[in-house]
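Researcher: Let's do a round of design. I'm pasting the structure tokens now; please hold your answer until I've finished.
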């Protein structure tokens, strides 16, 4: 059985992403940010979900 993922608080994720907690909250409301778990009104994030989400945000610069 694999080891369970450690869940991260919004404050830790915001710090990791270099954004404010309020920005992260707005992303949750707009369904734009990384996936999260809602544990009785307390959002928690899995590190692997954040890494996958970040990889999907990568944009290649177009060459003119």
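Researcher: That's everything. Go ahead.
Model: Designed sequence:
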């Amino acid at each position: 059985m694999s080891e369970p993922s450690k869940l991260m608080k919004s404050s830790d994720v915001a710090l990791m992403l270099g954004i404010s907690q309020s920005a992260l909250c707005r992303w949750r409301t707009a369904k734009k940010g990384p996936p999260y778990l809602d544990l009785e009104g307390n959002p928690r994030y899995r590190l692997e979900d954040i890494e996958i989400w970040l990889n999907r945000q990568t944009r290649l610069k177009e060459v003119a």
